[in-house]
Design a protein that fits this description.
The chain is built from 15 helices and 23 strands. With about 475 residues, the chain is α/β, with parallel strands linked by helices. The chain has two domains: about 270 residues, Aldehyde Dehydrogenase, Chain A, domain 1 (3-Layer(aba) Sandwich), CATH 3.40.605; about 180 residues, Aldehyde Dehydrogenase, Chain A, domain 2, CATH 3.40.309. The strands form six sheets. The protein has a seven-stranded mixed sheet with strand order 13-16-17-12-11-19-20, sandwiched between helices. Strands 8-7-6-9-10-22 form a six-stranded mixed sheet, sandwiched between helices. α5 crosses α15. The longest helix has 23 residues. The radius of gyration is 24 Å and the shape is globular. It starts with a strand and ends with a strand.
């Protein structure tokens, strides 16, 4: 029997429409869910706003810690089920979905650890006549109601990165998952409620249409807007935010990797393959542009193509699968169009370059595509890696920086001076030395620059952004 998820919005029972979740692998119906209209979505925001306004009803830090601890325990007990559901709805291979489930559990634990150590600071007083007799300090308070829009590619851990910090910060949150992958969100919210979170403090919703999503994003009751998704949508929504609404935007990049002539290719190749073809390239910091010294570039590209050719493409629910499907048929068509454009412009196709059954695309390596092609200037978000020869390190850095996006970058070399030169000159929020661009742990800062985003992700940083520091100044004759 197909499971149905009713509305999980406090005070709203009537659904406006019903949505379906289908497997990107075979199109099978996985579940159905109720969509919400504008009235229901506004009800969710009204509930969140009322909770925040009633300061006597705020959840204490001790209670929030207990809820997060219990939630992590429940997630750990259901780890395999969460991973399988994420693999089925999102298409990420099961082996990688299990890693995602483990990361999501750790993300929730990080939220409670961050809350346990969240502290203000003492502001110096008494150093001037005007500040004499005063004691000042700051403390963190929740910023207010949070609205979060999430993406499909990490359907469990991205939700954990948005909902978990809101709970830790003490903010009521309404969360809109991707309509392609809402099941992991529903499941995590159910777990949080089972762990003791009152229903009204976290309300998942999938609007009936984009107009409803746009209208709630501009609602003045929202104190913080968290967006993970495409840059085109994120920047447009930012322009619509009400005055005073703070936001964080996490978009994609066109991640560059520089491979110096002295690099250990045996070490680099599996890392480049993993970083480029993990989740079929549907990762915002996926390896996409590799700039290699001309003396090794073609050999590197051919060896990478050989690795890509051996990757097992198939059913994401099987443990042996290394590359699963793209999320929608339209994405397969788009990736193929971009690849063909590059080949027609002069790129050499070394492997892949073709659509496969069940929304899959063969892992593809292109050699020396022109810099103006879309595979070199825009985020492919598919299993395509481009390798380009360069005559100098400065040329590689200049070409790596020659796009409108800046997120994570990488350099492979055995020379510390070369590594530091690249690290200082690459336009990036993080530079990985002898590792791929998609490396991430959930407590590190994670920030897109320029068109790639706004604000800083990572559990402790998001908790910080969802709070305000209130200063209290005490005047006393005893000071």
């Amino acid at each position: 029997m197909i499971e149905h998820f009713p509305l999980m919005i406090s005070g709203t029972q009537a659904a406006s429409a019903r949505g379906e979740v289908r497997s990107p692998w075979d199109g099978s119906l996985l579940a159905t869910f109720d969509r919400v209209d504008l009235h229901g979505a506004q009800q969710a925001l009204a509930t969140a706003d009322a909770l925040f306004r009633n300061r006597d009803a705020w959840l204490s830090p001790a209670r929030r810690i207990d809820i997060l601890r219990r939630a992590a325990e429940l997630m750990h007990a259901r780890r395999n089920e969460l991973a399988m559901e994420a693999a089925r709805e999102g298409g990420k291979p099961l082996a990688d979905s299990r890693i995602e489930a483990d990361r999501a559990i750790d993300s929730i634990r990080l939220c409670l650890e961050t809350l346990r150590h969240l502290a203000g600071e003492q502001v110096p007083m008494g150093s001037t006549p005007a500040s004499a007799g005063r004691w000042a300090f700051t403390q963190h308070e929740p910023i207010g109601p949070v609205l979060a829009f999430s993406a499909f590619n990490h359907p469990l851990n991205l939700i954990a990165h948005q909902v978990g910090p809101a709970i830790a910060a003490g903010c009521p949150i309404a969360i809109k998952p991707s309509e392609a992958t809402p099941l992991s969100c529903f499941r995590l919210v159910q777990i949080l409620r089972e762990a003791g979170l009152p229903d009204a403090w976290c309300q998942p919703l999938v609007p009936v249409d984009l107009d409803v999503a746009n209208q709630i994003a501009s609602d003045p009751r929202i104190a913080f807007f968290s967006f993970i998704g495409s840059g085109e949508v994120g920047w447009r929504l930012r322009r619509q935010l009400a005055p005073g609404t703070r936001c964080s935007l996490e978009h994609g990049g066109v991640a560059p990797v520089i491979v110096a002539a002295d690099a250990d290719l045996d070490d680099a190749l599996p890392l480049l393959a993993k970083g480029g073809f993990y989740h079929a390239g549907q990762v915002c910091v996926s390896v996409q542009r590799v700039f290699a010294d001309r003396s090794i570039a073609l050999s590197l590209a051919e060896k990478l193509a050989a690795v890509a050719d051996r990757l097992h493409v198939g059913d994401p629910t099987l443990l042996e699968t290394e590359v699963g499907p793209l999320i929608r048929p339209a994405e397969v068509t788009r990736v193929d169009q971009w690849m063909r454009e590059a080949v027609q412009a002069g790129a050499t196709l070394l492997c892949g370059g073709r659509a496969l059954p069940n929304n899959c695309y063969a892992p593809t390596v292109l050699y020396n595509p022109p810099d103006g092609t879309r595979v070199m200037t825009q985020e492919v978000f598919g299993p395509v890696v481009c390798v380009s020869p360069c005559d100098s390190m400065d040329e590689a850095i200049a070409r790596a920086n020659g796009v409108a996006y800046a997120f994570q970058a990488a350099i492979f070399t055995r020379d510390i001076d070369t590594a530091l030169r690249a690290a200082r000159r690459l336009d990036a929020s993080a530079v990985m030395v002898n590792d791929h661009t998609a490396f991430r742990v959930d407590w590190m800062p994670f920030a897109g620059l320029r068109r790639s985003g706004l604000g800083v992700g990572g559990i402790p940083h998001t908790v910080e952004e969802m709070t305000v520091q209130k200063m209290i100044v005490i005047r006393s004759k005893e000071l």
